[in-house]
Structure formats: C-alpha cells, structure tokens
C-alpha cells in the first residue's frame, strides 16, 4: 500500500508559539507536538550547515514509530558548488548524521538556486553520483573529512534511499531533464510557488514529492478548502496508482503551514500511516 506523508518544512518558528503550539509549551517539546499532528517533517537546518549525529538521533527518538523525516541537502553543494566537484561535500553531508535517523530517514531533498540553469551533463553526473541505498550512503560517507566525533557512518538495516530535486530556473522544464531524473530514479519536486518558479508535474520516480510554498503569495498565503480539495484529488490519484507521496507546506510566515498540512492530511486519511 502506498503512503501519504504530509508535513511541514521545519518546526521551529517563533510566530507559531501560542498559535499552533500551545501557550507555555516548552520549546524542547515542539517537535513532539508537531509530530503528533503530522506524519513527516523536512529538516531544513541541514541546508544551512552540517548538523550533528546527536541531533539526528534525538529527533528520531522524539517522534512516533511511523514518523519520517526528509532531509534537505546542504546549500554548499547546491548553491556554492552548484552540483560540480561535489563528491567531498556530499560525503561530509552523508557522514554528518543523516543515517542516524535509521528507518525514519525519508527522501533527501536537493533544492537548486533560481540562478542555476539546466546543464544536462552536470545534472546527470550529480544524480548518478548519489547513493541509492543506506549501505551505499554509509560507504560514501566514509570518504568524509569530518572529525570522528562529528560523524555517523553506520548504515543500519539496508533500505532504499530516495532523492528529490527542486528546480527554480525555467530552463529545467524540458523533456531532457525529466529523462535524466527518470533514469536515476530521482523525483522532480512539484513546487507550488505562487507562480514565481516553474511547475513541473512529471512523475520520474516511484514516489512523488510536493512542496507547497503558498497559494497566492510565496511563503505567506494559506490554502483554501477548495485548493486543498484539488491537491488532495491530485495526490490521491498518485497514491491510488501505488506511488508514495511526500508533501510539505512551507507557507510559515502567517502560521498557515501546520493547519494546511493537517487539512490535507485529513483529506488523505486513508493513505496516512497512522490513524487520526
């Protein structure tokens, strides 16, 4: 059976306190509270800097058994190196504790900058380099240059490792990019960005990855009942075809993300891994 993992991008936002999070809820319990209401969360801190294995282990311990995290790849790889000569940086990212999530490790998200144009050779080489199992990731991680106390190199149980790519330059909206992603089993992120960036609906993997950044205003506006109905119908069609779906709301500015995520989760209840 396919599963719908519906969640939010990050969980530590000051404006959410006293609105989504109950008043006086300790900050250290915010992850547990969010995880009780949703099925997945994107870890965004990993985009800005390498996290520590102790953090990944703590996040795994504080969430329900069926919970899953997606992990955002580092901007050093995507925005500074721009996918080129990135093997060492990818090794450090994989070694930094990602595998410490164990069975709660979901897809790795690679968000490309809006200034990065499609180059077939670069994209093909990068996606071809990425590990497809946790065992491959552990072997790759052993190439790290990080200090031993900053690393987690154990693969744990052998599991597939999924990758999703979010693009933001219109040059990617071509059949050649979809063909490359499909050849490597990587999902092209379906991103709703209030019209700012390309919307690509090509299904190129055995799962779909959706990021909802705002219906009318990027990162700010919420989704109406009618809009959530439409998204639920589209995602429900993929689920009925046997394709897992990961969907994350990133419209956090006005505290809409968690409520919109719960609304979409309600609409896809038959596909969620935990009862409401």
From TrEMBL:
InterPro entries: DUF72, UPF0759_sf. Pfam families: DUF72 (PF01904). It comes from the Bacteria. SUPFAM superfamilies: TM1631-like. Transmembrane segments: none annotated. Gene3D superfamilies: Protein of unknown function UPF0759. This is DUF72 domain-containing protein. The lineage of its organism: Bacteria, Bacillati, Actinomycetota, Actinomycetes, Micrococcales.
